[in-house]
Amino acid sequence: IVILSSSTRGTKEQDAQYFGQLEKKQVYKVNTAAIVSKNVGETEKNLQRVFADAAAQQSILFFDDAGQLFSKSADPQSTAKYLQSLAQSRNVPTILWCEDDCRTWLKR
């Protein structure tokens, strides 16, 4: 997982595309607002689907405004661990754009 934030140079889309070029993979920009649901189980199902599709297409996921995944969660640390486990188990490179607080939740 790569974290981009407002302190990152360049634009977030350019940075995500650069990683795609380095890895020779397509970058799929995830509409984070469409993934997040009031029902925790539904958000997890949406994330599973997105990661499964990315794995099948061997693409990189780019979560623009990933902070929404954490800010709407009752347990942001658990959400971060879930994202990390999906990325690792599906072998999907993942880019998160969010404010600096995401770094706190994604520390191991």
Task: Describe this protein's structure.
The chain is of the alpha/beta class. It has six helices and four strands. Strands 1-4-3-2 form a four-stranded parallel beta sheet, with helices on both faces. α3 runs parallel beside α5.
Structural class by secondary-structure content? alpha/beta
Please, how many helices?
A: 6
Chain-averaged pLDDT: 85
Along the chain, the helix and strand elements come as EHEHHEHHEH
Shape: globular
| Radius of gyration using CA atoms only | 13 Å
Fraction of residues in H or I helices: 55-70%
Quick one: how many beta strands? Answer: 4
Report on the biggest sheet.
4 strands, parallel
Termini separation comes to 12 Å
Summed up, what is this model?
By secondary structure, the chain is α/β, with parallel strands linked by helices.
